[in-house]
Amino acid sequence: MEQQEIREILQRAEEIEQQRSYSLGDSPAENQIVAAAMEAGLSREAITQAVQERMAINSVSREVGELVFALSADGYCYPARIRAINGDVIEVTFLNGFEHRLMKSDIHPFSLLPGSTVNAPWAGWGAWNCTVLSYDRENLRVRLSDRMGSEQNFAIADIRIKASTGADSIRNVAEMWLYGAAFVAGGGIVGALITWLILR
To answer: What does the pLDDT average to over 1-23?
Structure first.
């Protein structure tokens, strides 16, 4: 195996290990996800992993010098380093040089899992939603796909993610499952009604 392949495997293993500490809690939204998944024949373990990957969970110790995604005024989160922590207020320096004060809730884990979505300034397209192929932690660069067959390397200072909280992600997954279950149930009722009308 090439050194680069070994490094990417180890980086991915580290990200997976960091995710393992997360498990679904006992909130109503999380219970709805599990119930809908079990009705669809999925295990709790499968839905836990899906939520982990969707939320790109990893531990955020929030220490000075740590690399995080920090919320900006445009509603996106950009890579930044924590420079000071004062209670619930965190001061960051974005990798583009700007400094900002944020609440802890506006700081998100820095994670670039393969398959996750980021927004990058793609040549010819402008700001474009891309898929992460790999992340070079040493050089702070990420390889992205435009989802149409092209790949390109970017400095992480050039990427951003859409801001959302963990609760929003869980709520979105729960809503998706509930709408799906309602659609299936609704289809069954309509089908039964049509069958009843035909057989009358």
So the answer is: 62
Q: How confident is the model at residue 166 (pLDDT cuts 50, 70, 90)?
A: very low
78, 91 Cβ separation under 8 angstroms: no
Which residues are CB-contacts of 8 (< 8 A; sequence separation ≥ 6)?
Answer: 134
Using the structure block, give the residue that is written with the tokens 């402008």. Answer: 126
Q: How far is CA 174 from CA 32, 56, 182, in A?
A: 6, 17, 12
Which residue is it, tokens 């110790």? 61
**pLDDT tens digits for range 72-101:** 989 999 999 999 999 889 999 999 999 999
Look-up: residue for tokens 């992205």? 144
**b/e burial code for range 174-189 (CB count within 10 A of at least 16 → b):** beebeeebeeeeeeee
N-to-C CA span, the chain: 69
What is the rounded CA–CA span in Å between residue 121 and residue 73?
A: 18
Q: How far is CA 111 from CA 97, 126, 154, in A?
A: 20, 23, 15
Closest by CA position to 177, among listed 29, 54, 49, 22: 29
Q: Is 2 exposed, middle or buried (0-12, 13-18, 19+ CB in 10 A)?
A: exposed
